[in-house]
Amino acid sequence: MPYIDTHCHFNFPIFAQYLTQSLSATRQADLRAIITPATTSADFESILHLARCTPEVFPALGLHPLWTTQHQDKDLIQLRNLLNSHDEIIAIGEIGVDFFTPELAAIAARQWEVLSRQLQLAKEFRLPVILHSRKSHDPLSKLLKDTQLPATGVIHGFTGSYQQAKRFVDLGFYLGVGGSISYPRANKTREALAKVPLSQLVLETDAPDMPLNGYQGEVNRPERVVTVCQILAELRGEAVERIKETTWQNSIRLFPKLSTVLS
Asked: How much is the pLDDT for 1?
């Protein structure tokens, strides 16, 4: 069973400018699918183009909370129009809320507004969502409970407690497992991901960000999803092949449009 990286910014220049070499490395790692989410409307066309010419790339479009002050109503209109005209879009993302700094907390109201409007698009188009959440797990889980999305989604790069993880899982959401679990100091997150049902976990890298322990200061790469899988297997005391096969099936279930290409 091959790997799926459920979150990688493969449209970033570090990969896109060296596409042949980047794809060669991912194929050698048995990485079959790379879900590539947008961060701003400037990413939309480049991601769609990359997906058209790269069978491994699957596009997700959305407006990231870190750039909330840049997002305009016209960007949301453009997103809706693209969802109407591009059936290959497999999810809405990367969207969410981030209160990590005082500056981000100060624009909380606008973050919630942009997120809520994108969740309504997810409802309308019955697509899963790729959610960014920092210092916002508790209010985000409440909003998701109230919104009742038909296709749920994934909490990307989950870092939180078991109690927070369980709230998301109980709502039917998946947790994205990335490089954070490689750091021994991340005890709370490591314990949570060792304890929640494997049926609700998917693998990711967030490349070129979220480097693994031992690779700090280096560009993260999608093929390191293999290492993430190995670390998760060690944490859970389960076989690597079981983690690999189950997270593959989880990813297909979470993103149904993958199945038409990968089955």
From this structure: 82
